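SEQUENCE-TO-STRUCTURE ENTRY
===========================

Backbone structure tokens: a row of integers, each naming the local backbone shape at its residue.

Task: work out the structure tokens from the sequence, keeping to the layout shown below.
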Amino acid sequence: MTTNSLIRPFMHLCCPLDGEPLTLADKTWRCGKGHSFDVAKQGYVNLLPVQNKRSKDPGDSKTMVQARADFLAGGFYQPLADALAATVLRSRSMTVLDAGCGEGYYLRQLLDAAEHSEHELEVAALDISKWATLAAAKQDKRVTWMVASNSQIPVAANSIDTLLCVFGFPVSGEFQRVLKPGGRLVMVDPAADHLRELKQVIYAEVKTKPYQLPVSLDDWQLKSEQRITFSVTLPTQAAIHNLLTMTPHLYRASNEGRDRAEALSELSLTIDVWVREFCPAHNK
């Protein structure tokens, strides 16, 4: 995929070791203190220092990433991708950071929609999983892809207009640090009935979670929320297997529950999610 003149990689990165600005030359990012980070052949840069890793291979595994890529390629979550893109593109010219981008499905959908509507964007994305970032970078060259953590985002303070957190883990302090004054956080989170039918198969008892915002109102002001609910049918055992593999339910379910799901050849599902916009509370 070629780089579109209206959609460009975001370049205001910072060294994860000392916070100094990074500059890119000859496929290497360097800071003024001599630290350097090479861009991999797939097109991403690893800005997650060894000392900041909680495990040898943090984040989603290669198997989980492939399962998610295969599942999302089936178009089952297209209405959600469309709603997210419409929410983000209410603003015209902006810098966008996808914090927890996975294999890049939602961001690719957003950038395709932006190209059709001639939005001008500068875009970066990060994920703590090397496998997710690698898969994303291989498919799209419009983005600065980074292996990094939401706990230490390697971009300049006050440099992001729109921060995405899609089924992710928000870190309020870092999110507020990187947002520009007037910037916003766009989040996607499960609602009460999300994947209800799958849960009924794999769990002996399904507990309904009460309505709860994903971030504290001490730190954030809710600007808008939209509940997206629709039904899909997974027509094959492979699609059901991929869904189970890509979600935390794979590890939470019992062996018997997983076996029941793997035995199905078709499953009708409720997709039920919140798309919300927040701004830092001090922007009120």
